[in-house]
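BUG: 3D viewer hangs when loading the predicted structure for this chain

Environment: internal workstation, default settings.
Expected: structure renders.
Actual: progress bar stalls at 90%.

Input used:
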Amino acid sequence: MAKTRPGRLYKRIKSQSYTRRKYMGGVPGSRISQFDLGDKTTNFPIVASLVVDERVAITHNALESARVAANRVLMKYCGATGYHLKLRVYPHEVLRENKQASGAGADRVSQGMRRSFGKAVGVAARLQRGQELMTARVRPEHWPAVKEAFRKANMKLPTPTHLQLEKGEDQVRLFLEGKIKAAKAIAPPPKEKKEEAPAAEGAAPAEGAKPDAKGAKPDAKAGAKPEAKPAAGGDKKPAKK
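Structure tokens produced before the viewer hung:
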């Protein structure tokens, strides 16, 4: 099986739309398994969408990966019936590629036609700037879960995005003021810890460091006995006769 090329190679829209499958043969199917998830009948008070900031083409693999990432977070913090997630786009565009051998010595194996029409290798969805990619509907106490779900979904996409609140601004304001308690706390994303440089030998001890018992210094080894002082007069030489 041929290795799948990264989706960033197809994100720029350079040609006309290619969607007429009537004259195509062997177009790969879409990997997206579901477009509606969660509770589809409840009228949730908060509606938020993930909006793209650029004109871009997103492959079906990236769309499915973003959907799975967002759905996993909402399922964990909202429950099976506490949200509704909907994917708003469909991958109509057919991607073409002129397959050639790659690797060491490939130029001697195949000299393919330059700028050929190509063969269908996948599908993608074209989005315009400001278009909604997916929409989530939740209750006010689950507002942090929506932000976390869209943050993780954004990592799977080849374009910058932003969160747009379409309905329920008053409910979100009450939640932020503390009048509505969150259903389940969400831990913030981990931050990178800076490694502390090792202390130089013979450096002065930090402020607030207490000496050990018996007046020993902080850097003294544990269990070390203090040096014995010489007896009084023991260092004097005997007088000559």
